[in-house]
Design brief:
Length: 507
Amino acid sequence: METSGTVEAERKFEADPSTPLPDLHEIDGIGTVGEPANHSLEAIYFDTRHLALAARGITLRRRTGGTDAGWHLKLPLGPGKRTEIHAPLGAADTVPVELMDRVLAYTRGHAVAAVATLTTERISYALYGQGGERLADFVDDYVRAHVTVGEPRELEWREWEVEVAAHDGTDDALLDSLTAQLTDAGATPSERTSKLATALGESWPALKGTGGESFTKGGTAVVPVRNYLADQVADLLLQDAHVRLGRDDAVHQMRSLIRRIRSVLHSYRKLFEPVPVKDLESELKSLAKTLGRYRDAEVLHARLGNRLDELPGKLVLGPLHQELDQRMAVRANTAMASIKNRLNSPRYFRLLDELEALIDAPPVSPLGAAPAGETTAKLVNKAAKRLVKRHNAAVGAAVGPQRDTAFHEVRKSAKKLRFAAAAVESVHGKRAAKVEDAAHKVQSILGEHQDSVMAGAELLKLGSAQGVSSGAFTYGVLHAMERTAADTAQEDYLRHSRKALKLRLKK
């Protein structure tokens, strides 16, 4: 079964049943109006008993009638915008697997069932520009709803909706213009995000994972950190679906988000009461490790394959490409099975619950309630000093495995500094951005170093394995190449690290 997706930019309006339609020809920028098209629609909305999808601004429905019959999943993309994923009608009471995979991070093992049925009598009008281009669609809907979640009830209302056709940066301006003119015609911009929200009324749940208040100058230290974490957790929930759907690079992206969240929690742990944050750090570390087995195999496979391609054919002794592909396929498949088991486990869903709980109601410590500027600067500078300490240890370490390990610790410290600075850019502006960029440069250089070290260790195993025969020579050549690459990365780091080691935030 194939799914497809679009981005929609729309505005909804409440209209009294007796309110006459506006003269659509008179709206600024509209050249012509298409003939009215009538549709009878039925939409069955699905959610958990506790409305887990609605609590995150997500709607899942099966609609019949009209031009887009099928399953529709709408995911928030920003104010007034949502990503809409379509799937064919299929069975009436079975959500397509492709759509369920996209919402499992939100439903978290709870059953999904019909919560409301809406029937709509729709009249739609296509709105065209002066040059004949389609700008938007205006619809006039009379809606009847039968709600089955909570206490069963019936209700009906009328609403108008405008959806723009282009998403080239002009859609917001057009929507603003249409909103002003439709309001003048007697409509009221709706505070509801969807028809389901209108149908559920007071049963509509509070939005989860939003991070609460926006940061203003002089605010408390916990606010920008919490807002940053809210953005990362929201991205994590979206990335969860990409992993389940097998998207390219999805495991890497999800692992990066998990590491980012854990790193920020660690750097700013003193802003929160210790017990929940410590437990979250531990779970995030474990989850990142599960994802890491697949990611490490993915990186190693690509790296060693490229190294083999770089060698002259006469130096590749034996079917090493095929052996590498087979070995890494087994490793990757085993690792992916572990990932899928983890992502479907109560343990994982509990972690997501606890992350959202931290964001929605953080256990703020006295330091977290202190002014943000000085408090967060001290914590970022502490991470910067830790980087210097790790740098000095690496430079002084004996050449060989001990030094390689020490430089890996430098990389981890650079990563923590990068994320600590990124989390408070709303407080410290360009200064924080400079720290973040410099730390990212160090992280990238030493990432190349670590990839070389890991590849070298794998090549040693391959070259000394029983029965390797003539291939041992090739693995030896590749090992020498990786050692050279690791040494080059160390030298590159020493040339570029000076700026990162000196940057601090002003208190």
